[in-house]
Amino acid sequence: MDAPPLSYDPLTTLKNIQDHLSELHMLGFLSRRDNNQGVSGGQYYEYELDMGPEIIIRTRTEIETNEV
């Protein structure tokens, strides 16, 4: 039995996630730390919330309740 075909391109999905994280970083929601583990570990970013989670949840709730 063959595996069903993928309905999305994993690289496109990864790129979309990376772009979204970068935008959230530029808007001040996330802080970003560069990591370089050399040839064996590669280079990557680590993200974390740059503001309290209650602010983010409250803002999201306000946006969702004001949708038309």
From TrEMBL:
Determine if Cell division is one of this entry's keywords.
Answer: yes
> Which GO MF terms does the UniProt record name?
ATP binding
Listed Pfam families: WHD_Cdc6 (PF09079)
Q: Which domain of life is it from?
A: Archaea
Q: Which residues form the Cdc6 C-terminal domain?
A: 9-57
List, alphabetically, the InterPro entries matched.
Cdc6_C, WH-like_DNA-bd_sf
Keywords carried by this UniProt record: ATP-binding, Cell cycle, Cell division, DNA replication, Nucleotide-binding
A Gene Ontology annotation in the biological process aspect, one of them, is: DNA replication
Reply yes or no: does the keyword DNA damage apply.
no
Q: What is this protein called?
A: Cell division control protein 6-like protein
